[in-house]
Amino acid sequence: MISIFFKRIFLAIPVLFAVASITFFLIKLAPGGPFDADRAVSPQVLKNLNEAYNLDASNWEQYLDYMSGLLKGDLGPSFRFPGRSVSEMISTGLPVTFELAFYAILIALVMGVISGVIAALKRNTYLDFIPMAIAMIGICVPTFLMGPLLVLIFGINLEVLPVSGWGQLPGDKILPSLTLGFAYAAYIARLSRGGMLEILNQDFIRTARAKGLTESMVVIKHAMQGGLIPVVSFLGPAIAGLLAGSFVVETIFQIPGLGRFYVEAAFNRDYTMILGTTIFFSAMIVFFNLLSDLAALWLNPRSRDS
Amino acid sequence: MNNNSLWTDALYRLTRNKAAMFGGFILVLLIICAIAAPILAPYSYSYQDLNLGASPPSSDHLMGTDVLGRDLLSRILYGARISLLVGFVATGVALVIGVSWGIIAGYFGGRVDSIMMRIVDVLYGLPFIIFIILLMVIFGRNLWLLFGAIGAVEWLTMARIVRGQVIGLKNQEFVLAAKAMGVSNFSMFRRHLLPNILGPIAVYATLTIPQVMLLEGFLSFLGLGIQPPMSSWGTLIKDGVESMEEYSWLLVYPGITFTVTLFALNFFGDGLRDALDPKTSDN
Which end of chain A is more exposed for a tag (fewer CB within 10 A), N or C? Predict the structure, then answer.
């Protein structure tokens, strides 16, 4: 266990280093400088700007400069918002995105696991077919369609929930979290149904039933631990998907989170912001993948001993 | 002969699966509509009737018109061309990379295999959507780049599946016999290994197409994918969202088209998997 943990961490460091380097040089390939605004800047101003941001130095110097800053957690200044650093912008957007992702995962887990487990227990009945049909809808209706449809129904036609914002009006967190969580609820429902079906056929479940445990005891204590391993291993990659989902959801609902900052940086060609967030996102995803792999290993008794 | 009966068996099972046949029927219909868009579409996709503006569905415009007075049905039909093209071409790119990578890793085994699959593992853990956005920002929003970028992301699972299949095959007698006869590596891949793994490849390719289309829709929705005057279903949904408060049909029709297509592709893919590999049909 511990050796796997360290092995994975040692693998993650060179990967993140490579990501940072590749992104840095890719951005140097980009056409146009960061100060090519609509109105031209006078040559003297441009020269001063380039000097201030150290853009006159050779690519190698800039690279070494950036990487040494990175080690100290300094991601450089934002090109578009003078006076603000990239790290500062990430730290304002991150809590919002985390909160949104947390609610979404919570919704997805509660809805997904409950309906998946029930579907597996009541296999080939309506309690199986209906949740699985809804799950299929959740997989086929993309977030960027689900969000606007929910807004149209609950925000505009029924007027029961606010259509945008985050933490300003009561209930404005419901629609974004639901939009983001629903697709994952669908995947988790299918995964937990599949995992449970596999486990429920095994001998130790028959033994547990034979020794007279109640059905809820069998399911909760014995079957779910193994049956939900696929769900746990899915959570790591799901974080990456949630991130992409947050781009869309934060744009639709005008939420000032990291996802919207990233999309805006992409439009504004705010290269330092793009570079910083890309490295930051990669680090986060590598970390969450590691976490979910370890959790899945720990849940599986066969790999726990080794 | 054995090979033949596998495919005829599979075809038989597929034709008995109603959901899959329905999905397949919708798909064929959509492909015909996309190809014949210039004939079927009542108007050109860029024709504007500015006097009309946004109008609800009527007998002249079956799905209504958008804010600029363009016929929505025609735009959906032309959008089908772009959306399906992205789906098929990007899946093709993913197929070529993934199958070659998987065959080489699986067949040579040993150190080659462990290095190649390690690379796949590492790439799996990276936020690829961000790299696609990065590429679109740096190199401009170009259709061919979009194909390449999406294809370059979706090949990883394909490589894993193909590698697993090849490892299962490579110690079978016919492969050993071919090797003993001195068949070159390339013709080993093409004539002996590839035909035997076509089933899983076909299944996975069918299931990759909806994912690719989702990804394109996602990028276009953010404004980083297909650029005007071209339109895909993703851009139509984006436009629909912008004016959904007054003109909800502009969101509803493209949304239904997109969702039904994804349903059809998923049903057909699931049916194909069940038909080609009856063992896994329970999952």
Answer: C
